[in-house]
Design goal:
The chain has helices at residues 15-26, 33-46, 54-63, 91-100, 104-120, 130-134, 148-161, 168-183, 206-221; strands spanning 4-8, 29-32, 66-71, 74-79, 82-83, 123-127, 140-145, 197-200. It is of the alpha/beta class and 225 residues long. It has a single domain, classed as P-loop containing nucleotide triphosphate hydrolases (Rossmann fold, 3-Layer(aba) Sandwich), CATH 3.40.50. It starts with a strand and ends with a helix. Bound molecules: 2'-deoxycytidine-5'-monophosphate. 2'-deoxycytidine-5'-monophosphate (DC) is lined by residues 11, 33-34, 37-38, 97-98, 101, 127-129, 178, 182, 188.
Length: 225
């Protein structure tokens, strides 16, 4: 089996940023599992498919093609061969993705796609349920957490860099709503795996978080042959 590092935790804890840095430093494939749910959300919005429309969702899932590629060190997301890297971060996708990711048939399909991706090569996977549901036997399990106001502040800065126009209040409300939805999911709910190491990033720099996680990975990897 491939070597799997699971990085779970709520939105805005720095998962995406630290995972990308660690993937590069340790030569692991970076798998952003949230991007897979965002692709399904975008496809539903584009085709006017509602949350209750299970037949249409079934068809969509049968035909959807999602690929995560690394192009010259930059993570790119392709949906049915189209580059949607920026589009999946838009406000309309962000507002809808939490409900979409709560639909059972979508979770089952995305989890199996994510397992397929992870089994191909040694990977670092970030999400909500990697260490608890997608890869319960992951070699390393990290759970990142931070105060909700700090998380909203970080997301505001990120959004500004990406020209996404959401106020601090909108972001804070969206994060709180997503936290609640993510924790209540029937399958793959956001929770700390029993054997996960919890890191509170509220008062830590990105480098500090990266170094802590790299230390943990290296200790585990040296025992893994
Ligand atoms: O990490 P993100 O914000 O891009 O994730 C988008 C949404 O997808 C988020 O609201 C929760 C959901 N998600 C999930 O349910 N399970 C995962 N493994 C990853 C993301």
């Amino acid at each position: 089996m491939s070597f799997i590092v699971a990085i779970d935790g709520p939105a805005g804890t720095g998962k995406g940023t630290v995972t990308a840095i660690i993937a590069k430093k340790l030569n692991l494939v970076n798998i952003d599992t949230g991007a897979t749910y965002r692709c399904v959300t975008l496809e539903m919005l584009e085709n006017n498919i509602g949350l209750e429309d299970s037949d249409e969702i079934k068809k969509l899932l049968e035909n959807i093609k999602i690929e995560l590629k690394n192009e010259n060190g930059i993570q790119k997301v392709f949906l049915n061969d189209k580059d949607v890297t920026d589009e999946i971060r838009s406000k309309r996708v962000t507002e809808f993705v939490s409900q979409v990711s709560g639909i059972k048939q979508i979770r089952l399909k995305m989890a199996s796609l994510q397992r397929e991706m992870g089994l191909k090569q040694d990977s670092i996977m970030e999400g909500r349920d990697i260490g608890t549901y997608v890869f319960p036997d992951a070699n390393v399990k990290i759970y990142l957490d931070a105060d909700v106001e700090e998380r909203a502040k970080r997301r505001l800065i990120q959004n500004k860099e990406k020209n996404i126009n959401m106020s601090y209040e909108e972001i804070l409300e969206n994060i709180k709503m997503r936290d609640a939805n993510d924790k209540a999911k029937e399958i793959g709910a956001l929770k700390v795996a029993e054997d996960a190491i919890v890191i509170d990033t509220t008062h830590l720099t990105i480098d500090e978080v990266v170094n802590k996680i790299i230390d943990i990975i290296n200790k585990n990897r040296s025992m893994y042959v």
